UniProtKB/TrEMBL annotation:
GO terms for molecular function: metallocarboxypeptidase activity; zinc ion binding. One of its GO terms (cellular component) is extracellular space. It holds the Pfam family CarboxypepD_reg. This is Peptidase M14 domain-containing protein. Its cofactor is Zn(2+). One of its GO terms (biological process) is peptide metabolic process. InterPro entries: CarboxyPept-like_regulatory, CARBOXYPEPT_ZN_1, CARBOXYPEPT_ZN_2, Peptidase_M14, Peptidase_M14_domain. CDD domains: M14_CP_N-E_like, Peptidase_M14NE-CP-C_like. Keywords: Carboxypeptidase, Glycoprotein, Hydrolase, Metal-binding, Metalloprotease, Protease, Secreted, Signal, Zinc. Belongs to the peptidase M14 family. Residues 22-345 form the Peptidase M14 domain. The keyword Glycoprotein applies. The active site is at E315. The lineage of its organism: Eukaryota, Metazoa, Ecdysozoa, Arthropoda, Hexapoda.
Amino acid sequence: MAMYKSFCFILFVTASAEFVWKHHNNEELPQVLEEVNKKCPNITRVYTLSETSVRNVPLYVIEFSDNPGFHQPYKPEVKYVGNIHGNEVLGRELLLGLANYLCDKYNERDHHIRSLIHNTRIHLLPSMNPDGWQLSMDVGHQDYLIGRYNNHSVDLNRNFPDLDAITFEFERQGISHNNHLLKDITRLAAPLEPETRAVMRWIMSVPFVLSAAMHGGDLVANYPYDESRSGAPVSEYSASPDDDTFRELAATYANAHADMSSQNRAGCRAGQDEGGAYNFGKQGGVTNGAAWYSLKGGMQDFNYLATNAFEITLELGCQKFTPEKDLEKEWIRNKDALLAFIWKAHSGVKGIVSDDSGFIENAIISVVNITGPVPRPIRHDVTTGVYGDYYRLLTPGRYEVTASHPGYLPVSRIVTVPQHQTTARILNFNLEPTRSWFDDYSTFSHYLRAGQPRIYKRDLYRQLTGALLDRSGR
Ligand SMILES: *[C@@H]1O[C@H](CO)[C@@H](O)[C@H](O)[C@H]1NC(C)=O
Ligand SMILES: *[C@@H]1O[C@H](CO)[C@@H](O)[C@H](O)[C@H]1NC(C)=O
Ligand SMILES: *[C@@H]1O[C@H](CO)[C@@H](O)[C@H](O)[C@H]1NC(C)=O
Ligand SMILES: [Zn+2]
């Protein structure tokens, strides 16, 4: 009898930990993440964003890293955001499934997944709009719109500060300034919703390099800009300075998906003559945002124009509310694409900018494309983080990369970015002060006040590079 009892107990424990493909409600969602964290305590951390949804549901994130909770130099950070529109539910379940898969494969010592987790910090936010999800569930998820918005009836993917307007205005004035534009904003079109604020804080505080937001209602990988320059509502291609790189990022997802890029598949709203009735398969499963339809205040363009992150938008299927019976099938159709896209954080170049006393934070990395006969500057700079580290996603080709910072002589280096990278080319820079540090102190003291150049002490620098070298043997 006693034996029978303990047998039952073991069965029960195993059953509760087993991941099931279903629509996980707002209580079950964190339980799945906790289960994964229990199975993989050394490589995961579950945390919540700074604010809850309107109806007080926490916004849960699970992080994968070999040092959870910490940014590590040379390791790019990636995020996936699901369920920003509450009634578009597939991304939410795919991210729960992905969390479970990464953990299981890591524990099975899968070489590919171990290498990914040892070299990348991955954050998954399965639901940005748990209130909309709940409403959509409550009404039986029939309606095409109910549950899309948050509980204040606001579309969260229209609620981000419109930085496109700023960059387009700079373009008209001939000013070449296309990054970290949040400080140039003078007013908000609408108050920020708590979900938006929480995600903005997150985006601004973690040095993300690559990101995708998940939607439903079509099958296409959509890339910046989402907003047209002229204000045209549809069909105006709105290229960003990184158009080539974005097209490659989007194509990576589409090509690794079971049929996003398939020429022969039917379009989602075939036969309807509304504006959205494209057959994206015919164009490789990718689209520029504004070439489809223009929107203001989206999260994708905000990432690119406010931070160093490159974000695309994934429309995961014709149906917004995927039936439960199709979830596992959809996982199989998306699994390779989800992983291939994360690997793209390892394309282009990365490195550390330092001077003789340590790292230089907020150094500017600018790039000129010298692949063709005419050098073409890519007018979107990235900046270095707290360890002086930067990550510059690029397509294969030849580039002149320049590191600069007020008070230092800029340094340029030529680099060739090869095809099929699984690790970015490393390009470190050592900058020399224009004058000695003490001479500069008064000239550049306003930067110091703004908290700008944070020069780290040499021993901290040594300690960290030493720690990195120790780890590279793994
Ligand atoms: C976590 O790391 C510790 C120390 O390295 C190790 O002993 C333990 O087996 C690891 N646990 C798992 C679940 O991998
Ligand atoms: C807000 O949430 C409540 C409780 O779930 C629901 O009854 C109400 O319809 C929601 N309102 C909106 C605008 O979503
Ligand atoms: C640089 O130019 C080459 C040749 O035109 C092109 O193939 C490549 O995509 C460009 N790179 C970027 C990042 O724009
Ligand atoms: Zn959507």
